[in-house]
Amino acid sequence: MFKIIRKEILNPSVSLIEVDAPYIARKAEPGQFIILRVDEHGERIPFTIADYDREKGTVTIIFQIVGQSTERLNELNAGDSLQDFVGPLGKASHFEGVKTAAVIGGGLGTAIAYPQAKKLHAMGVEVDMINGFRNKDMIIIEDLCADACTNLYTMTDDGSNGNKGFVTAKLEELISAGRKYDIVIAIGPLVMMRAVCELTRPYGIKTIVSMNPIMIDGTGMCGGCRVTVGGETKFACVDGPDFDGHLVDFDQAIRRSKMFAKGERRSREAHHCRLEGMDRA
Amino acid sequence: MPNMSLEKVKMPEQDPNVRNKNFKEVSQGYTEEMAIEEAARCLGCKHHPCMGGCPVNVQIPDFIKLVAERKFEEAYHKIQETSSLPAICGRVCPQENQCEKYCVRGVKGEPVAIGRLERFVADWYMKYGKSEVKKAASNGKKVAVVGAGPAGLTCAGDLAKLGYEVTIFEAFHTPGGVLVYGIPEFRLPKDIVKEEIRKLEAMGVTIMTDMVIGKVLSIDELLGEEGFSAVFVGTGAGLPSFMGIDGENLNGVYSANEFLTRINLMKAYRFPEYDTPIYMGKDVVVVGGGNVAMDAARSAKRLGAENVSIVYRRSEEEMPARREEVHHAKEEGIDFKLLCNPVRILGTEDGWAQKVECVRMELGAPDASGRRRPVPIEGSEFTVDAEVVIIAIGQSPNPLIKDTTPDLETNRRGCIVVREETGATSKKGVYAGGDAVTGAATVILAMGAGKTAAQSIDAYLKEK
């Protein structure tokens, strides 16, 4: 069992938990992920490592409540324990020779982009961070991000924070204004990552995306997470999750992300039935 | 008086049309009377050829004699002297190619049902056994076992009996390896695996789950700061092979590993009581001819698929699956399309699998493995409906250990190179066995390799 040391509610649908996991904290690097299981009946779900503290022996994840398992995860508080917590999994990100970078986070993706920006910034790289949210109530970890980059641009779809537009609009504006990037790192929903890749392609800027396909074991033994990259089948859990965004088959990835949609709905309904039953009892 | 019947005492089974709708065990096992009757068929040969066929050297005539005398508890301890997992072996070993193959009674008629008797004894002990397994006095030396599959469990059990402090590191949340994620409940109930593992823990073996060696700790760290004197690598062959044909990444196409892991380990067949979902269709095609293909096909049927076909490129004679499993699959209504090979998977416009295009094959000249090579017959293409396609054409070792242990020699297929008689690898103090060495093989061969390695590790540490 893995104890939750701290919990923070970042916005109405996003929470942070810091978990006691000394073995993982010793090895974790930006770009890697963990797989957790809430309880004995739980499924295995992957989360990118948002932060780690080697001295304290803790690993932090930030999650969005999107379905049954994340709802159950969010019912836990500091002092509660998770059934399983496995990692660090996947390949760590590599940034050798990078001098300027744009790190782009979309929604929850911001939490995954944050450790990348932090590492680059610590390496002395000039980092522009562009984060996008639906509206100002959804904004998360703005202070942390501000400390992890040179310039932070926080965008909202509806302009409720005074900075209207998608992340791609800001990126295009910066590039047009003459900003040069050795690398663009985009993390967020598949459609947003695809849009960033389409934008950078004509400029020939190397663009790294973090893929988030359906996973089960996370160690390369099932291929549930396979993605087509440059015409080849790759397993995101061992070959990634970072890939060259200009080579990723996004249409296929978007389609495969829907494979269990029907099951996910049924599971969530069953969970609500159980909860309602408990209320009545 | 020996029982001179030419046939084995029949084992009760669930009716095929009932069992293909549930995940309960197909074979029900012998009653005490049936076991005694079957045990009386053993002639107690002095030269016991049966034992030569058993990779873990179970003392077969001795334990069978005890069964015939109704001394079931003693029979269990006789088996336990050399085998740590009899309830499992009795169920999943291909006895027809091992112990029973050499049984004298098999020359004329059927061999003695050694597997069924071993299973009976182990099940009896689980139900009625009084004496708890003993914990040996510690010799103070620590050994790490990587992987809690059949090889690792056997190696750990044997070392614990010798007094070593054994820790097993397992990547999954449940120990057992293929016994829990691969082989379905209807062939090997998970409660039985759990009980066998509990006995190992009672013998003093520590199991750490959720530990992916190669990520969270390396082999070098186990031998260094973690303080282990030797390491056994039993990480299996869990990396699934795909065919590389068009349409393999359509929705509805699974590797057998994914399909079976969802069902067996995550209990997706009990969704939504368990959270892991599984996508099923009316028509299912399973590609391959091994035990994994049989397990996948029979599981699909139990999940409600109407038409389940096995597509295999050779003929039934070359099928690597156990005869009994092929027979069970046929009884349960699985259709066999032999001498057929998938060419591509066709999908709907929105990317879901719909049909498999196959080509008929004929057998040509024998290849390097001695089996006749299948050759496609030009122009014989046809399609089979399939909303779900399960690829069960084999697995190879996961490269994780190899990639993080540079001085561990592997061959071009990614298998760890060992000295066969000892299980010693190219790295001092590191031993390996099971599918990690041989590529995908059988449970009992992995157990045999675990046993050999335990003896070698003991010899190495005594000398050190």
Automatic annotation (TrEMBL), chain A:
Binding site for [2Fe-2S] cluster: C222, C225, C237
Domain FAD-binding FR-type: start-end pairs: 1-95
Keyword match Metal-binding: yes
Keyword list, A-Z: 2Fe-2S, FAD, Flavoprotein, Iron, Iron-sulfur, Metal-binding
Co-factor note (free text): Binds 1 [2Fe-2S] cluster per subunit.
Domain of life the protein comes from: Bacteria
PANTHER family, per database record: DIHYDROOROTATE DEHYDROGENASE B (NAD(+)), ELECTRON TRANSFER SUBUNIT, DIHYDROOROTATE DEHYDROGENASE B (NAD(+)), ELECTRON TRANSFER SUBUNIT-RELATED
Chain positions recorded as FAD binding sites: I62, F63, Q64
Record bears the keyword Metal-binding: yes
UniProt GO MF annotations: 2 iron, 2 sulfur cluster binding; flavin adenine dinucleotide binding; metal ion binding; oxidoreductase activity
A GO biological process held by the record: pyrimidine nucleotide biosynthetic process
Protein name in UniProt: Sulfide/dihydroorotate dehydrogenase-like FAD/NAD-binding protein
TrEMBL record, chain B:
Presence of the UniProt keyword 4Fe-4S in the record: no
Keywords: Oxidoreductase
Annotated EC: 1.4.1.13
Protein name as catalogued: NADPH-dependent glutamate synthase
Positions of the Dihydroprymidine dehydrogenase domain: 19-128
Domain of life: Bacteria
Source organism per UniProt: Ructibacterium gallinarum
Domain FAD/NAD(P)-binding, chain residue ranges per copy: 141-450
GO MF terms held by the record: glutamate synthase (NADPH) activity; iron-sulfur cluster binding
PANTHER family cross-referenced by the UniProt entry: GLUTAMATE SYNTHASE [NADPH] SMALL CHAIN (PTHR42783), GLUTAMATE SYNTHASE [NADPH] SMALL CHAIN-RELATED (PTHR42783:SF3)
